[in-house]
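Shift notes (night). Ran Nodulation protein L while the centrifuge was going.
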Amino acid sequence: MRGEKEKMLAGDLYDASDAQLQSDLAANHRWLARYNAALAEGPAQWHALLKERLAMVGDGAVIRPPFHCDYGFNIHLGAGVFINFNCVILDVVEVHIGERTQIGPGVQVLAADHPRDPAKRATGEEFGRPVRIGRNVWIGAGALILPGVSVGDDALVGAGSVVTRDVPAGATVVGNPARVRG
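Came back to this:
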């Protein structure tokens, strides 16, 4: 029988109130408190702290504090990734961000999702859908990347856009919902 954490990591419905998951969240909250308190320390210290918690942190990857995430251990950052202030990553499943990608302030990358059926949602169960952001992508300030979305290499997501569908490589998308701009 699989535990709730195994269900979560597989993208299946799981109970987020599970004791193991609550323990993982508490550990991440302690790490986030340390990370966000290091604002004055600079990129070298941020990088070292990121390596303590995230699944993968490429050379030169930086997240400017404050930063918020669910677990941390599902986040993969390629080399040279730059994430500006106030980013939120809900990483109940894997979130991959490719090398040299730049993410503006206030961006939210959301891999956590909820059942559409109100009766199922009322049980408190949730699930995740992985998010993949390619290499050399630029995501403008305040954009939202929704669960299950892939953003192709060299794409551009306009500030404030809500990305509900996959973005082709090299495309520019803007708006709510984000659409390819020609």
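The mean pLDDT is 97. The chain has one domain: 4-180.
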